[in-house]
Amino acid sequence: MEFNVRRLAADAGTFLSRAVQFTEEKLGQAERTELDAHLETLLNRAESTKHWTEKIMKQTEVVLQPNPNVRMEDFLYEILDKKVPTRANNHELLGECMIDSGHEFGPGTAYGSALIKCGETEKLLGSSQKEFIQSSAINFLTPFRNFIEGDFKTILKERKLLQNKRLDLDAAKNRMKKARAADARAVAETELRIAQSEFDRQAEITRLLLEGISSTHAHHLHCLNDFVDAQASYYAQCYQYMVNLQKQLGSFPTTFSSNNNQPSGSFSASISVPTAPAAASLPAPPPSQASPALNELRSTSGTRKARVLYDYDADSSSELSLLADEVITVTSVPGMDSDWLMGQRGNQKGKVPITYLELLN
Fold first, then answer.
1. Is the entire prediction scored with pTM above 0.90?
2. How open is the CA angle 203-208-211, to the nearest 5 degrees?
3. How far is Cα 354 from Cα 332, in angstroms, rounded to an integer?
4. Could you report the per-residue pLDDT of 166-201, keeping only the tens digit for each?
């Protein structure tokens, strides 16, 4: 108990001494020890890194999720340490709306079929957007946030300690100046040596932490490259989806009778809607073309590019849906049925039927 009282009294004395020194410095009544120029430069660099890291994070979040209400909701879930509920994004909602309306107007009509195809593409865009957001959050935003909430907080803590040690040092210098008696001067000299030693030690610790900002910049540069790669992949994938959709819509008739009162029955009867061939009737690749390429692919277990000949809707989660004319990467997997290959489009993987593909050189 007595030890705790003495400790509290000592802490109170130290706090009072620092407060007096700080006040006198502000009033211009006391001198202060300035940090060396290199340390000041490192401190300014750390503050600048923190400032711009926070701004980049905030603006990236706006790009990934423009809706401020959704961002606030996600933030609250994060604070409460709860899983964010799965929600459809705008592309997926539009896709569902188009598909439902297409079925309402009739999949056998040009407009209905076109709406369904547009809706399916919108859902693919929505799925790609989700993958892009997730990838960016993990590989870009999380490292930036870890710096703000981890490394920079440590820097702030050590910088505050350095400020306290500087106040202790300058207070000891003032006591040394005011000491007149020999005994008092001896005590002041001892306190000054201790204060100077503790200040120098804390300055070195702070300097080493601040010099680590260079490593932080290097790491953030790597994260920036990942973010740009994710963006390039996302936009390329979206572009390919839209090009494929344009080609599909281009096969629909664009001129119809101008008689708006024409019955829908006669309207739809005059339209020939192209449909993808059924799986059972799809022609197998000619042996003269497909066999050597397939044999080479299976023997090397390598990867090849392949062009998709027809649209294909996956029957299960192990398969990959395909769009006509898109180019994907295929791999032969040992033990897989000879009529199938493993396909990959961006981050999506799944089995694809060989009869839907044309291997490229």
1. no
2. 120
3. 11
4. 999 998 998 888 888 888 889 999 999 999 999 999
